[in-house]
Every structure is written in C-alpha cells, then in structure tokens.
C-alpha cells in the first residue's frame, strides 16, 4: 500500500469542475452507507462545504489495484471552525470535525489515528482552544482525548386526551403553521439567537435550515415532503421559536409525530410549541431526540407520567487543545482555586494548571505546584463547560482525587452558569 494523506479545499460548487472533491464526497457517502450521490446532491454538498469554509482531508492509496479507482480516497475527514456557547453569551472558538470514514478494506491500520493526530496538532497550532465532534459510535474518540460534554434526552410524550399543561399558553403569542419555504427562511435566524443564548450550543452549518424544513433532506439526499413546520409568534410579531416534525399514521389508527427540530427562544415559546404538538388531532405520541436533560416540560405536564425518557445520549464531545484559552473563555459563577494535573497521550495539553476563579472569570496558568486532582484530557473536556460534574467522573474512576474529597469542591468550582444543552449534530 502506498498511502498518502492530503488536505484541500473544495474549489467549485459545480461537480464537473471539482473531480477531487466529488471523489471525496462519494467516499464519505459510501462510508456512511448513504445512497450514491446524484449530481444535484453533489452540487448542494459542494456549495455547503464552500459556504462553511470546510477543509477536506483525504488518504489515497496509490497502490490500489485496478479496477478500483485510485482517485477515490480510502479515508476521509473534514473540519471547519465554529463557536460553542460557553455561558453568559461567551463564545468558545472550536475546530468542528466531521465526515470521518475509513474504507472497510483499509480499516484498523491507523488511518483514523493519523488523520486525527494531524488535525488536532494543526488546530492547536492555529490557536483553537478546543476541538469538537458528535459521534455515531461512542467507543472511538476518548483515546484521542475527546470527552462527552453536553447531553440530550430522547423522549416520548403521550399526547392522548390526558395531555394538558399546568399553565396553558395565555394567549400572548400564537403558534402558526407555515410552509417549508417560510420555515427555512426563519430557521437560520431563530437558531442564531438560540445559539447566542444557550450554554452548550454549537454553531450550525449553513445547510441546516434547508434540511430541517425538508426542502432538501441531507440524509435521504432529496426533498422530504413529509416535514411540517410551525412558528411561535409573539404579540410583537417576532418569531420566538419553531418546530419541524414528521407525522406517520396508518389508516384508521392514531399516528406518531417525530420532532425533527425544536428551537425555542423563551420558556413560553417552548411550552406553547409543546402545547401545540400535544393537541394535534389523530396523533397519540410525540418523540424528540434532543430534549434538554432537565426538561421543563416534564414539570409542566399535569400528568407527568405522559413523559418518558427513552435514552440519554452524549451530544458534543470536546477535546482540549489549549487549557488556559478554553477555561478563560467560559463563564464561571463561584470563587476559588485548584490545581489540576492533566495527562495527554497525544501530548497536546499535558501538564499542571492552576485555575483561579473570581467575579465570573478564570485565570489559568501552568504551574509546578502540587495538584489537587489528576485526569486525562478527555475528562477535562467533559467537565469544562459544567455539563458533567467532576465528582461523577471521580466516581467513574476517570478523575483521581489527590486531596481527600476534593471532587466535591471541584463540583462547585466548575458548576455551570445554567443548564447545558445543545441541539446541533454534525
Ligand atoms: C470508525 C473508523 C473511522 C475507524 O477508522 P480506522 O482507520 O479503522 O481506525 P484506526 O485504525 O486509526 O484506529 C484508531 C484506534 O481506534 C480504535 N477504533 C477504531 N474503530 C473503532 C470502533 N468502531 N470502536 C472502537 N474503537 C475503534 C482502534 O482500535 C484504534 O485503537 P488504538 O489506536 O488505541 O489501538 C472506520 O471504521 C469507519 O470508517 N467506520 C464507518 C464510519 C464511521 O463510523 N465513522 C465514525 C463516525 S463517529
């Protein structure tokens, strides 16, 4: 095998003008078991990569025997830079990683490790404080220093005749049904405002409004005409949240709604959208995969048993690249200090750090002082936004207390300024 890794930028949204990027896209769709890409899908994908400033990484096998096409990469990887809301409206810059595939004939030879190591080193050199990804398989990324940092609940709410809220929407504002094009028009701006105010949120790529509205489904690579949408409009006329969903129903039976995207800007918009979903006729349950782990809906329902958690998934995994930059970027709420020893098998952030917190800010410096606790880079990635408590990781054997009961004081020190919740998948 003659393996060679390269990085490149897509050049054109016209598939005919960018065969290198087209071959890369075909490899990605193969890796994720998607349909072969049509010209329309290729054009839209290239446009999306261009709009979001993606860099593509590929490994080619120049020794691959005919009839295999040597221009088709045997491994793919892509990245761009975005932001993560780190509390109090502060934005943490992040290298966002996606499209990780390795061809079955070339797996388990270290190609992912080679691509990931190069990417993380380059992101660090470029000054990014963290890298982030969302996973299909949770067992892969801890070895590269990624820890799960935000979570989402998979819920099912029974919406039969028992569905009612303690405080039904009071008429201040209204949920209105909208066509896909109108939903697409508003989805980007509503999400932008959600991202600006929600701790744990990750910036979305430019294609998402088209995807959530169903005008172009990025999974099926065609229009999804099942998608319906509604917007909560405040008395002022301002959109304050939206929901997009698909309903499925067999004749003569009650059906189910699956929420595709639900983006509230205020608690009242959240409840109003749920009140709307709970009263759709011919439907007896609503499923959603991105509910907050501390969901107000559970308490708003007069019959809490209607609410069922079907699963709890990690959403965003974070990888420290620059500990002082990452921790000073977030918002803090307690006062105190600690010394953490960080171990890093990739040698990007290993060492001891003193973290002093006062007045909502942290001062983070390297130190030779004795550490209070030791952890690997992945554990620090998990606790860095406050979405995972250090004492939980200590109990899991992932943080070592070097002073008795220090995990409890770390819990206070690292406590988030609010609920940590993200609804971005990439
Ligand atoms: C997952 C995938 C990218 C791995 O690529 P790869 O080149 O075979 O991985 P590497 O040989 O570089 O392995 C790197 C390490 O990850 C481990 N690893 C790889 N795939 C793994 C998996 N699916 N589960 C658990 N560990 C895995 C390897 O054992 C190796 O561990 P080590 O270095 O500590 O010994 C590849 O199998 C693939 O393309 N799968 C389909 C698409 C996919 O799942 N993408 C990831 C979405 S999150």
UniProtKB/TrEMBL annotation:
UniProt source species: Naumannella cuiyingiana
UniProt domain Eis-like acetyltransferase: residue ranges: 216-309
Family matches, as Pfam families: Acetyltransf_17, Acetyltransf_9, SCP2_2
Biased composition (Basic and acidic residues): 63-72
Residue span(s) of domain Enhanced intracellular survival protein: 323-419
Subunit structure: Homohexamer; trimer of dimers.
Keyword check for Ribosomal protein: no
Active site: 141, 426
Region annotated Disordered, chain positions: 63-82
GO aspect biological process, one term: aminoglycoside antibiotic catabolic process
Record's protein name: Putative acetyltransferase
HAMAP family, A to Z: Eis
Family assignment from sequence similarity: Belongs to the acetyltransferase Eis family.
Keywords recorded for this protein, A-Z: Acyltransferase, Transferase
Any one GO molecular function term: aminoglycoside N-acetyltransferase activity
Residue sites binding acetyl-CoA per the record: 100-102, 108-113, 136-137
Superkingdom, natural source: Bacteria
